[in-house]
Design a protein that fits this description.
single chain; about 130 residues; alpha+beta; 2 domains; 3-stranded antiparallel sheet; 3 helices; 9 strands; about 25% helix
Length: about 130
Amino acid sequence: MISVALATALRDAGLRWHPTTGDRFVIDKPGVDDDVYTVSEMTVERHDYPSGTVLGFNGTTEWALDSVDAAESLWLPREDQLRGLLGPAFVSLSAGFTVVATVDGADRSFTSDDAAEAYGLALQAYIAAALA
């Protein structure tokens, strides 16, 4: 799973989240950003309103939290989601969790102790190059 710091950097770089079942997130507020939640039709449901998306907590499983605006949440994309977001820029993933991606016309390597984090670093560079 990617770190909250990298998820914040990706969001700040322009990555947008449209919550779907199976997505993981934290509430983006100090003191409550340690708990990771998963969008699920049984526990945390996505509700779309004209004013925006709200993540509703069902039952009493989440310490009586009723709902939180998606804008107050921080998406923690999974490895497969990050790879998909890289699209054709993705070249390879090798042992030691090194992702090779084509960024700004050149193959670049991104290494981490976690494959998802390496994909996230590659995506961050890819987004930055696309916006430059």
